[in-house]
Design goal:
The chain is of the alpha/beta class. Helices cover 39% and strands 20% of the residues. The strands form two sheets. It has a five-stranded parallel sheet, sandwiched between helices. A four-stranded mixed sheet has the order 4-3-6-5. One of its GO terms (biological process) is 5-phosphoribose 1-diphosphate biosynthetic process.
Length: 195
């Protein structure tokens, strides 16, 4: 986070991050958000005005998701120091967007991030401009995709599926991710191209 923003927040001024746009891609576990984000990133390669955020997560890295692993101590320290422009808790883990997101937003870029439905209200409070993409799939598809990752027990898969935070309003784009990756991925890429 910029020194200016830290100073503004320290002075008690509630200034939203801008002028750029934050696009939060949200939806239940197993909806295919990371797959769609990877597709859109590849289709929009070379666009300097659009950046794709790598989240910080208190989980080791693996092949299912492109994130930066942090431990709880470093995460807590980052929150206390104001390094994360957005952070949240979900599924027993801590998630955050890094300082580079605030820098890109300040530079007027569009930043696309895998987010959480539970963090949408906080994102709207912190960022001047937010668009919401909701990705979902039928419950049986979600369960099969989560189980295929091999990270969770059957009980943990069921617990994830029961967690369904409500959106604070209709999304700017809704994607039912049940067809091939090209169809759903191109919908996301086309939406981002049009911003």
């Amino acid at each position: 986070m910029s020194e200016e923003l830290r100073a503004t927040r320290a002075a008690g001024v509630d200034e939203k991050l801008g002028p750029g746009l934050l696009v939060l891609v949200v939806g239940p576990s197993g909806a295919g958000k990371d797959t769609l984000l990877a597709y859109a990133r590849a289709r929009l390669e070379g666009r300097d005005d659009i950046r794709f955020a790598r989240r910080r997560i208190t989980r080791p890295t693996d092949a299912t998701e492109d994130h930066i692993a942090v431990d709880e101590r470093d995460f807590t320290e980052g929150v206390a120091q104001g390094r994360f422009p957005l952070h949240w808790q979900a599924n027993g883990l801590s998630y955050a967007l890094g300082e580079e997101v605030a820098q890109d937003i300040a530079a007027g870029r569009t930043v696309v991030a895998n987010g959480s439905r539970a963090a949408v209200a906080e994102a709207r409070a912190r960022f001047a401009r937010v668009k919401l993409v909701h990705v979902t799939a039928p419950t049986e598809v979600l369960a099969a995709r989560i189980a295929a990752r091999g990270r969770e027990s059957a009980d943990e898969v069921l617990a994830r599926l029961k967690r369904e935070p409500a959106l604070d309003g209709p999304p700017d784009l809704r994607i039912l991710n049940v067809d091939g990756i090209d169809a759903a991925g191109e919908r996301l890429a086309a939406f981002l191209r049009g911003l």
